Amino acid sequence: MSHSPTTIPEHHPALVHQFDSMEQQREASTFGMWVFLLTEIMMFGGLFAAYLIYRIKYYDAFVAGSTSIDVTWGFVNTLVLIGSSLTMALAVSAAQRGARRGAQLFIVLTMILGTVFLGIKGIEYHQKYVEHHIPGGIFGRFDAVSNYPGQEPNIAEEVAKEKERVEKLSPEAAEQASKQIAKQTEIFFCFYFAMTGLHALHMIIGLILMTWLLVQVQRLNIGPEYYTPVELSGLYWHFVDIVWIYLFPLLYLINRTHAK
Amino acid sequence: MSTAAQTVKPVMPARHYLNDNYGIRSWLLTKDHKRIAVLYLFSITFFFFIGGIFASLIRLHLLTPNGELFQADTYNKMFTMHGVNMIFFFLIPSVPAVLGNFIIPIMVGAKDLAFPKINLMSWYIFMVGAFFSLYAMVSGGVDTGWTFYTPLSSGFVHTNVIVMAVGILFAGFSSIFTGLNFIVTVHRMRAPGLTWGRLPLMVWANYAASLIMILGTPVLAITLILLALERGFHIGIFDPKLGGDPVLFQHMFWFYSHPAVYIMILPGMGVISEIVTCFSRKRVFGYAFVAFSSIAIAVFGFVVWAHHMFVAGISVYSAMVFSLLSYAVAIPSAVKVFNWTATMYKGSVKLDTPMLYALGFIGLFTIGGLTGLFLAALGLDVHIHDTYFVIAHFHYVMVGGMVMAYLGGLHFWWPKMTGKLYPEPVAKLAALITFIGFNLTFFPQFILGYMGMPRRYAMYSPEFQVLNVLSSAGASILAVGFILPALYFTWSLKYGEVAGDNPYKATGLEWQTTSPPPTHNFDVTPVVTEDPYHYGAEEEVTVVP
Q1: How far apart are CA A137 and CA A56, in angstroms?
Q2: Which whole number is the average pLDDT over B179-201?
Q3: CATH number for the domain including A84?
Q4: Contact B361, B274 (CB under 8 A)
Q5: pLDDT, tens digit (0-9, with 9 covering 90-100), for A206-232
Q6: Please, which residues 47-76 of chain A have a Cβ atom closer than 8 Å to chain B?
Q7: Contact B245 A53 (CB under 8 A)
Q8: What structural domains and CATH numbers belong to chain B?
Q9: Cys staple from A143: which of A14, A100, A132, B346, with CB 3.0 to 4.6 Å?
Q10: d(CA A107, CA A101)
Q11: What is the reported pLDDT for A132?
Q12: pLDDT recorded at residue B450
């Protein structure tokens, strides 16, 4: 690359050929990450919009579905993720200071918290599997009646009973309503799995990114003049956390106090 | 100056991106945006001709009212695969991924795009998508129409919808990465002195298209995922029988797919701005207006999607709003057409091949755009919705507009890409054949549609036959117009005259480097000191001595 007239006297090993300076490289990379996160927002946004439309349309069924998922696990997971955001931020700050061991430590902590989150998600998914609340026909027929001892009773029936009491429906109409609500609850669970599933997929990608990052921190001369990989992974990780911050109230907290 | 240019025969530069290194590895693992553009060129040309074969079969089938060639459901597969191929695997990547990929980093004076590895990855992702789509085609095809409307696509048809959706999903991610690369490159990698107000209009247009790519495509991705979930697991998201809402699918689909037509047309408009200024030897009329009209089209493009759904049962009030907003898109589009015309006014217009395509674009795009206003009118749309009028309108914009612009741009930058000149007389003839064939194919379809011939039917009433025969005849002429460039471009690689660095004496950074450019585009980082398209000034200098 002898042709560049503005050659920098000290050529950082991480500087790639298409950029003139480390600063330009860092700015371009960070900007690129933000643009990428914008596309992610639009992708989740499409899903969120569809979810909100059905939530308005089938409010009763969505309340029924929402109250049947375990808010405690959801809350614990929120705390876990916020904690992982903190350790990630500490990892970036350590990388900026050039404290490589510290950065690696915090990255490992972030990975542990991420894995805990996915583990809890797994417990929740398993609960849904046992309760026959997985929509579609692959994992057994979706059933609004819970067969699991000690779990919530038939959510659709309960909502229909509530409707019967409030709107004074005939028993036949109440049964019809119960059937309909069961179907609509399935839509809630479809969105529940699509949204948390897409989020979990992003978490898994994040964990793979962190593993790569551990090697990079060692291999590249991470320090005050070059810490872009850590910073970008941090941006990504925080984004995935923020998505959960929206998912948690949307899925777990619909009108919970009122329905209980 | 001109005699001097004739006496000194241009020679090929000793080292350039094509002979920098050889072998299949040097191409498949290249991070050079120019080589990736060439990879894209081959891939999308392949898909263009596949889509073209489907189009020819459709036109052959429609020669007779009863359609002797195919069963009705085979016919459904033909138009579906024509649409999917042409839109997702040709039109969307055409100008951005081929011409844009090649020319934009050079236009902004950069050594490469900001993320060369991601650029290469985008081609591989595109090819994975292409593989899925080809697999869907040979293993039974898809017959839902390229719009995949639910619940037809999710519950009723027995064809390869999911495989095709996966293919489109991959193609979509590839275009997201291309758009991301363009945006970062334009923001962060401009040469010294190249301010936003000095950017070539091609860059502005591709920048606007990139905005749509990164904001719209993810929504299509999630829509297709939901469609695949519904089809694969029988979950009711869009199927009314299962409690879903089919109109929601249309909203989500068109939220991307309407802006997508601006992904297709905007880069073409950028190409036309370059060609018109160069072959009129004039500064562009109203630079800022042309530049910002690109952004305006991108912005308006996002708020007009429901004009595809006027008869799908949306409320009258929202239909009125969307109709009004659709009219608003006409303003920036008209700004462009008027400014190109004003640029040509009193210019020294030279009717070389790229200019012929540009003139074709301006005329045909105007017809296509104006008939779009017919369709945006609520009352009239009820009458001509889902007729051949829509087909004709769309093809006037996409083939008469975008394909013309793509071919014009390919001719314009061919000397830069290969270092060789194409044979001018044959190229002019091909441009003329394309123009005539195109109009003969699609103008009768306006009349057919207005008379009430519905789209997507394998049969039609006998009174429509004369116009359909005309259209099919035009299609055969159009095919000749498309095959000719493929032949003489290939010919020119070996036998074409050496072009020299700047065969058109055009301005712009891409003409200051060698043809073909060296691997890192410039031997010395260029410094920009003038506004774009300083053709007037250059001419004065040439005349004085």
Answers
A1: 26
A2: 95
A3: 1.20.120.80
A4: no
A5: 999 999 999 888 888 788 888 999 999
A6: 47, 49-50, 53-54, 57-58
A7: yes
A8: 35-543 (1.20.210.10)
A9: A132
A10: 10
A11: 76
A12: 94
Is residue A119 a part of any domain in this protein? Answer: yes
User: Which chain A residue has the Cα nearest residue B252?
Assistant: A46
* Tens digits of residue pLDDT in A23-61: 899 999 999 999 999 999 999 999 999 999 999 998 888
Quick check: is A61 in a domain? yes
Closest CA to B391 of B35, B59, B151: B59
Q: Which residues does A193 contact at the CB level (< 8 Å), separation at least 6?
A: A125, A128, A134, A135
| One-letter amino acid for residue B472 of the chain | S
Work out the minimum CA distance from B57 to partner chain A, whole angstroms: 37
Q: Which secondary structure element, helix H or strand E, spans residue A243, and what is its range?
A: helix A228-252
Predicted TM-score (pTM) of this structure? 0.92
Contacting B residues, span 305-334, partner chain A, CB-CB under 8 Å: none
Which pLDDT score, from 0 to 100, does residue A5 have? 47
**Nearest alpha-carbon partner for B392 in B468, B481, B338:** B468
- Overall domain count for chain A: 1
Report the distance separating Cα A20 and Cα B110, nearest Å: 10
Distance CA B519, CA B542 (A): 31
Output the CA torsion sign for B346, B350, B351, B352: negative
Q: Mean pLDDT, chain B, as a whole number?
A: 93
Tell me which chain B residues have a C-beta less than 8 angstroms from the C-beta of A58: 243
Q: What is the mean pLDDT of residues B409-416?
A: 96
**Is A125:A232 a contact under the CB 8 Å cutoff?**
no
ipTM of the complex: 0.91
Q: Is residue A16 part of a domain?
A: no
Cβ–Cβ below 8 Å for B245 and A54: yes
pLDDT score, position A140: 63
